[in-house]
Design brief:
Layout lengths: L2 H12 L2 H25 L5 H16 L4 H9 L3 H17 L3 H25 L19 H19 L7 H17 L5 H35 L1
Length: about 230
């Protein structure tokens, strides 16, 4: 067997269902983010944002008492919550016997925060002027949506993978989605900001985990060679 054939077989061995699903998810998430960026910054369309704002404004008028609970929900992807949670949760994961999972959560959040800020600076979109909750910073993509998806998505993956608790995947992802919805409800973000945040968070999680997996594989290979 020649070297080229060996490499092809090794590559085929990497194409597991997990890898293929991750590749498809990354392509879809990247395409959605790119599409939303074009809608907002090239075509300057506000149709989706106005439609979403109209719906949530109708909810608020019909149920005035909803704003209080919405403010509570939105806190669970705010930096005052995510910063300590991104340290405490990895410590708990490490204590449970999964040090790699702990590093994965910690590094995923650190990278997501940095990437979100870079994207905000690049696109430089101001926030809505009629926000019900005063928030500093730029608007696109939503930090609550992107960081929330990274945190709860990574937690869902770790619970399913290492702790054999796949039942938590759907609730955690729905919770991240609900948090994103609160940003539109409070006019802290446009709907396109939130959708782009979800797409950016998903693309980052897949790309980060793929890179981390390759790094650990190389590290194991070096250790075995020694």
């Amino acid at each position: 067997m020649n070297r080229f054939t060996s490499r092809l077989l090794a590559l085929a061995g990497l194409l597991t269902v997990e890898v293929l699903f991750g590749l498809v998810l990354f392509i879809v998430a990247f395409a959605v983010f790119f599409y939303l960026a074009r809608v907002v910054f090239v075509h300057h369309s506000v149709a989706l944002d106005n439609w979403a704002s109209g719906i949530v404004d109708g909810w608020r008028l019909a149920h005035p008492g909803l704003t209080g609970p919405v403010r509570v929900v939105t806190f669970f992807a705010a930096l005052p919550f995510l910063l300590p949670a991104s340290v405490i949760v990895p410590l708990l994961i490490r204590r449970a016997g999964h040090p790699r999972g702990a590093w994965e959560m910690l590094l995923a959040m650190a990278g997501s925060v940095l990437l979100n800020q870079l994207l905000k600076l690049y696109f430089n979109r101001p926030r809505p002027s009629n926000a019900l909750l005063h928030t500093f910073g730029l608007s696109f993509p939503s930090g609550h949506a992107m960081l929330g998806f990274t945190f709860y998505g990574c937690l869902a993956w770790l619970l399913a993978r290492h702790f054999k608790r796949p039942v938590w995947v759907a609730p955690l992802l729905l919770w991240a989605g609900l948090i994103g919805l609160t940003r539109v409800y409070l006019h802290a973000h446009y709907a396109t900001d939130v959708l782009a945040g979800f797409a950016g968070g998903a693309a980052w999680l897949v790309a980060f985990r793929a890179g981390l997996k390759m790094f650990w594989r190389e590290e194991e290979a070096v250790m075995q060679a020694e």
